[in-house]
Amino acid sequence: MISLEKRQKIAAMIEQARREDARLKAACEVGGIDARTLQRWETNAGLQDGDGRPRARRSLPAHTLSAQEREQILRIANERRFAALPPARIVPTLADEGIYIASESSFSRVLRAHGQTRHRGRAKAPRRARPPTTHVATAPRQVWTWDMSFLPTQVAGVWCYLYLILDVYSRKIMGFEVHETDDSEHAVELLRRTALAEGLHAMAEKPVLHGDNGATLKATSVLAMMYWLGLKASYSRPRVSDDNAFVESLFRTAKYRPEFSAKGFADLHEARLWARSFVHWYNNDHKHSGIRYVSPAQRHAGEDRDVLAARHEVYAQAKAANPRRWARHTRNWNPITIVTLNPERDPVIKAAENASYTKQAAA
Question: 140-186: per-residue pLDDT in tens?
């Protein structure tokens, strides 16, 4: 965009050259413009008023958010229950209540325009070129993964230890314990309690239990308990830090929660109280991005299909009321049926889907 002052200077130089018998085209080339550009400037008062594009009045698109909708977005996003949540979790929660105002990107634009930035949350785990054997889950209690994480205390060098078992399909925390020491007996007791609570003794097909290569999770007493319970052992590859991405991602979520004590826990009791509160929130209130923003408890109980079907209906009604806001289809609220423990391979997923369809047809 050429400023008014520069336009007038170029036009004066071209006019001077023409008075000295220069051709218009050649003079314009030296001035860095086209002859037609100079003609438009002279015809449309471009040498008096400058470029008119910044002052042009443009009609708003028909699907633009109204002022009332923008105010509603700000009001809802700043409600106490949503004040610490990103749009990625606000929008699905509203859909569960039968409300659709705008998409996540529209929420983000409105919040940014008013100086409010909400982050989506944790980063996705990186993919690897050569994954280990892939375990596939098509229902709860098929693939579990577990690990241990350090919880800081207010005494430097002193830690508490969080042991945790996660269901890969539903992302539900099946069992957890917090202790003052890192000991394989704690892992044994967690396995025993979780197996009893989930009724593993009555299951014909026992879950796969995936863990890292830490000494605690591979101790003889732990292996003996897994054998007695009928659990199928699976371990990360040596010297590979991200082969247990589901649990590592959960630990990141836990330690970035506002309730997590950045200065460390005062004692074991305080750490256990925090862990109990976090697990309840994660299982029942957390809208998990990996399972279409339903809670792990809903997913584990099989309630996610009805929840997602209701969201789809809300979006369909919103599209019917204002079709210009959708170029094509509405958001995909289909349930995720196949979950793989490690990076997904198309042949593995296809085989699992075919097996699932065959089992349903036989039933």
Answer: 999 999 999 999 999 999 999 999 999 999 999 999 999 999 999 99
Contact criterion met (CB below 8 Å) for 282 and 260: no
Residue 275's pLDDT band, with cuts at 50, 70 and 90, is very high
Residues 99 and 106: their CA atoms lie apart, in Å, by 15
Residue 349: pLDDT band by 50, 70, 90 thresholds?
A: low
Count of CB atoms within 10 A of residue 51's CB?
14
CA–CA dist 293, 241 (Å, integer): 27
- CB-based contacts of 308: which residues, under 8 Å, 6+ apart? 292, 294, 333, 334, 335
Nearest Cα residue to 9 out of 25, 43, 32: 32
Question: Average pLDDT over the chain, rounded to whole?
Answer: 87
> How far apart, in whole angstroms, are the C-alpha atoms of residue 27 and residue 37?
13
Within 8 A by CB and 6+ apart from 8, the residues are: 47
Question: Confidence band (pLDDT; 50, 70, 90) for 242?
Answer: low
CA atoms lying within 13 Å on the CB side of residue 74: 14
Superfamily per CATH, domain 136-291 = Ribonuclease H-like superfamily/Ribonuclease H (3.30.420.10)
Q: How far apart are CA 165 and CA 173, in angstroms?
A: 6
* CB atoms near residue 308 (< 10 Å): 23
- Residue (of 209, 301, 214, 205) closest to 246 by Cα position: 209
Q: How far apart are CA 115 and CA 121, in angstroms?
A: 18
Residue range(s) in the chain whose domain bears CATH number 3.30.420.10: 136-291
pLDDT band at residue 227 under the 50/70/90 scheme: very high
Residue 150: which H helix or E strand, with range?
strand 143-152
The region, left, alpha or beta by phi > 0 then psi within -120 to 50, assigned to residue 239 is left
Contact between residue 188 and residue 225 where contact means Cβ atoms under 8 Å apart = yes
Binning the chain into helix, strand and coil, the percentages to the nearest 5 are: 50, 10, 40
Q: What angle do CA 255, 131, 358 make, to 5 degrees?
A: 100
